[in-house]
Amino acid sequence: MAREYEPVVGQWYENIDENESFRVLSVDEDAELIEVEYLDGDVEEIDLETWQEFDLDKIEEPEGWTGSRAEAEDEDEEEEEDEDEEELDEDEDEDDDEDWDEDEEENSNY
């Protein structure tokens, strides 16, 4: 008898029949698709019908799990956004300095 679990984002499962561990990355209820990531980093979309055929066990995050390629890509994007924000802040500071210089020059004429 298959044990049915609703797919929960972030939850780890073991497919008993295939002896594969994976975690759920996303659930698209409208399209009835579940995106999963296996221990080796492979990402796959599974339709809800296939999911319901799996004999699953909920498991803890595997020991030594270092994160996924998807997480690494998200972290890279966040770092790039932070760098872009820092550059904008530096540009604003330079503009403020220029304005201050202009104000000083205007005031020196009095």
Main pleated-sheet profile: 5 strands, antiparallel
Rounded Rg: 25 Å
The neighbouring-strand order within the major sheet is 4-3-2-1-5
Choose one word for the global shape.
elongated
Q: What percent of the residues sit in helical stretches (DSSP H or I)? A: 40-55%
Give the class from helix and strand content and strand pairing.
alpha+beta
**Oligomerization state of this entry?**
single chain
Strand tally is 5
Percent strand equals 25-35%
Keywords, separated by commas or semicolons:
about 110 residues; alpha+beta; five-stranded antiparallel β-sheet; 2 helices; 5 strands; about 40% helix
List the helices and strands and how they pair.
Blueprint: E1 12-15, E2 20-28, E3 33-38, E4 43-47, H1 48-53, E5 56-59, H2 69-108
Overview of this protein structure:
There is one protein chain. It contains two helices and five strands; from the N terminus they run E-E-E-E-H-E-H. The radius of gyration is 25 Å and the shape is elongated. The protein has 110 residues and is of the alpha+beta class. The longest helix is centred in the last third of the chain and has 40 residues, at 69-108. Strands 4-3-2-1-5 form a five-stranded antiparallel β-sheet. The model has no long low-confidence stretch (mean pLDDT 79). The relative contact order is 0.13.
